[in-house]
Amino acid sequence: QVQLVESGGASVQAGGSLRLSCAASANIFRISRMGWYRQAPGKQRELVASISTRGTTIYADSVKGRFTISRNNANNTVNLQMNTLKPEDTAVYYCNARDPFARDYWGQGTQVTVSS
To answer: How far apart are CA 74 and CA 17, in angstroms?
Structure first.
């Protein structure tokens, strides 16, 4: 059974920081590229950042230089450090695991709200 459990969402003011965490089932974490997506009201879900099993990262242009994704292979977690938050970062953030067969698994989402 695959489980992805996010935490860390909150309401902050613009310029602030948040750290999101996702605890994953060990069986899927070890073999998957892990990522964070977000979905704002009325918009499509979009990739924020992802990290491969070897640590290769990808970032959306809108978050480069502000967000950092990392994975802790000892405790099967993937984190997203978000700095210099902007109101346009407001969204529900979802943890994602994509296994070698391109199957996607999702967490339940955590709300991030950035006020100006």
So the answer is: 25
Nearest residue to 81 (alpha-carbon basis) of 71, 96, 91: 71
Closest Cα to residue 107, out of 51, 16, 28, 52? 28
Burial class of residue 52 in the structure, from the number of CB atoms within 10 Å of its CB (0-12 exposed, 13-18 middle, 19+ buried):
middle
Q: What is the pLDDT of residue 1?
A: 82
> Which tokens in the block code for residue 39?
């979905």
pLDDT, tens digit (0-9, with 9 covering 90-100), for 71-96? 999 999 999 999 999 999 999 999 99
Question: Which SS3 state, helix, strand or coil, does residue 90 take?
Answer: coil
Question: What confidence tens digit (pLDDT) does each residue in 34-76 have?
Answer: 999 999 999 999 999 999 999 999 999 999 999 999 999 999 9
